[in-house]
Design brief:
Helix content is 26%, strand content 33%. β7 and β8 form a beta hairpin. With 236 residues, the protein is α+β, with helices and mostly antiparallel strands. The chain is globular and about 50 Å long. The site of biotin (BTN) has 20 residues, from α1, β4, β8 and β9.
Length: 236
């Protein structure tokens, strides 16, 4: 599509009006007028420079309490794809920002449709900074072309990335592998980092993530678990 409010919203409309959507049916937009980020933020992306798309995914037997496995699988596969095109130092900033050299190159917004205890359907929205060259120095973000000094065709990136993402279900079925691969990618693992908790700056060592996706942080000798809304990374 050329322009749409948000590919996640467009996908939700299609889900409502079309009675059959298949896994990996996708909406790719050249420009979003109201792109959405996590924590009710906006996702701004200049027209034509970047990849913004959403796809439909119906997990097989995934419990609501295991929903984070989907985020983990998506993050790992995006990271694998980025490494395959030559990027190095690719990491995941919890819960699912994909970073290169500690700068954000890709954001993920997953919206789930749940039954009582099962995750029935997902709209997985992904924004990748591909050719964006004007990056504000204080924004802590980067783009693929900025890192590799090379121009990429958005269409090719989209196709290749989606082919990596086709392994989501395989990963979800292998929780031990999922957890090791995710921890290998986790930015700041076993390091002391600064965070904001309840408006206060705290320092703590990242210990990993719990099975339901909470961040485990050692603060003043005590392990604490945080949901996404409760903690924010502070970069120096
Ligand atoms: C974040 O890091 O805050 C998540 C950003 C997700 C952006 C993508 S772009 C395609 C899809 N449509 C949206 O409105 N958001 C996601």
């Amino acid at each position: 599509m050329d322009s749409v409010d948000s590919t996640n919203e467009e996908m939700k409309r299609r889900l409502k009006h079309q009675n059959s959507l298949e896994n990996y049916d996708a909406v790719v937009a050249n420009f979003q007028t109201n792109g959405k980020g996590q924590r009710e933020a906006k996702w701004e992306s200049s027209a034509g420079d970047n990849l913004t798309f959403s796809f439909y995914f119906q997990p097989n037997n995934l419990k609501v309490m295991d929903a984070f496995k989907l985020n983990q699988a998506v993050s790992i596969l995006i990271a694998d794809f980025l490494k395959s095109i030559g990027l190095t130092n690719v990491q995941v900033k919890w819960p699912n920002d994909i970073m290169v050299n500690e700068k954000k190159v890709c954001g993920v917004l997953i919206e789930n449709i749940l039954s009582k205890d099962e995750l029935l359907e997902s709209i997985i929205g992904i924004g990748v900074n591909v050719n964006q060259s004007r990056i504000e120095s204080n924004s802590n973000s980067t783009s693929i072309s900025n890192e590799l000094q090379e121009y990429f065709q958005i269409k090719v990136i989209a196709q290749e990335l989606i082919s990596y993402l086709r392994k989501i279900q395989d990963f979800i079925n292998r929780p031990a592998l999922l957890q090791t691969r995710f921890l290998d990618l986790l930015l700041g693992l076993n390091e002391n980092r600064k965070f904001e908790v309840k408006g206060i700056e705290v320092s703590g060592k990242i210990l990993g993530v719990s099975s339901n996706g909470n961040l485990r942080v050692l603060i003043e000798g005590k392990e604490q678990l945080f949901e996404q809304k409760q903690i924010r990374f502070l970069f120096d």
